[in-house]
UniProtKB/TrEMBL annotation:
The keyword GTP-binding does not apply. Pfam families: 7TM_GPCR_Srbc. Keywords: Membrane, Transmembrane, Transmembrane helix. The chain crosses the membrane at residues 20-42, 54-77, 104-124, 136-158, 178-199. The keyword Transmembrane applies. It comes from the Eukaryota. InterPro entries: 7TM_GPCR_serpentine_rcpt_Srbc (IPR019420), Mito_rRNA_Mtase_NSUN4 (IPR052322). This is G-protein coupled receptors family 1 profile domain-containing protein. It comes from Caenorhabditis remanei.
Length: 240
C-alpha cells in the first residue's frame, strides 16, 4: 500500500512538471517570438551583422519551443495516476527537437563568443571573415544537431519501459553519455571564451581611467566590438 501511495505521488509530480514545462515552453516561444518580430520590424537590427547570430539563436529557441509542445501535450494526455506507459516511438519522435535544438543552440552560442573575441582581439581579420561567418556557424550547428537526433534513434532500443516519465530513460545509455559529455564540453568552451571577453572589457575599462582619450588607441572595429560585447555578453553566457 505504501509503495502504491509513493507511485501515485511520483506520478502526480510528473504531471505537475509537465504542466510547468508546457507553460515555460509557451513563455519561451513568446519571448523569442517578440525578439524575432523586433528583428523584422527594426531595420537597424537587421543591418547590424553582429547580431545575426543572436537572431539565429532566438529563432532556434522559438522553433524548439514550438515543436516540443506536442511532446509535452502527449505526456499530459497519456498521463495515468497509477502507471505511466508511454509509447517509446512517439516519445522519441516528439522529443527530437530537444537534442537538435540543444546542439544548435550550443554551437551558435560558441559562435557568438568566438565572433566577439575575434572582433575585439583581431578586428581586421574578423571583418574579412564576417561575410560568411554567421551562415557557416549556423550550418555547423544544424549539422551537429541533426547528427545528435539521428544518433539518438540509432542507439535507442525500441522497448516498453513502464513508469518512465521522461524522454531520457527511453534513449540508450551510450547516447546519454555522449550527449551529456559533448554538451558539457561545449558549455565549458563558452565559459572560457566569455571570460576572455570580460577580461578584455575590464582591461579597456582600466585604460580609460589613465588615458584621457582612449578612442585614439583603439581601432574603429575594436570600439564597436567592445560596445556590442556589453549587449551580447548575456547571450554568450547562456549555456543550455
Amino acid at each position: 500500500m505504501d509503495e502504491m501511495h509513493i507511485s501515485l505521488f511520483s506520478n502526480e509530480i510528473y504531471l505537475t512538471s509537465y504542466c510547468i514545462i508546457l507553460v515555460l515552453q509557451l513563455f519561451c516561444a513568446g519571448i523569442n517570438g517578440v525578439i524575432i518580430i523586433m528583428f523584422w520590424k527594426l531595420s537597424d537590427l537587421r543591418k547590424n551583422k553582429n547580431f545575426n547570430l543572436v537572431f539565429y539563436f532566438s529563432a532556434s529557441d522559438f522553433l524548439a519551443a514550438v515543436f516540443e509542445i506536442p511532446y509535452i501535450i502527449y505526456t499530459i494526455l497519456k498521463w495515468n495516476p497509477s502507471q505511466l506507459n508511454f509509447d517509446q516511438l512517439v516519445i522519441l519522435i516528439s522529443s527530437t527537437p530537444l537534442p537538435l535544438q540543444r546542439k544548435v543552440s550550443a554551437i551558435i552560442t560558441i559562435g557568438i563568443a568566438i565572433s566577439r573575441n575575434l572582433a575585439i582581439f583581431f578586428p581586421a581579420k574578423f571583418r574579412k571573415l564576417e561575410q560568411s561567418y554567421y551562415s557557416e556557424i549556423t550550418l555547423i550547428g544544424i549539422a551537429f544537431g541533426v547528427f545528435d537526433a539521428v544518433l539518438m534513434f540509432i542507439s535507442s532500443p525500441i522497448t516498453r519501459i513502464p513508469n518512465c516519465g521522461t524522454s531520457g530513460c527511453f534513449v540508450g545509455n551510450q547516447f546519454r553519455s555522449y550527449w551529456g559529455t559533448s554538451n558539457m564540453i561545449l558549455g565549458f568552451t563558452v565559459v572560457i571564451l566569455s571570460i576572455s571577453i570580460f577580461f578584455k572589457i575590464k582591461s579597456v575599462g582600466k585604460e580609460t581611467l589613465v588615458i584621457k582619450n582612449p578612442l585614439k588607441h583603439c581601432s574603429k572595429f575594436q570600439q564597436e566590438s567592445l560596445m556590442e560585447s556589453y549587449l551580447s555578453v548575456a547571450t554568450v553566457m547562456h549555456v543550455e
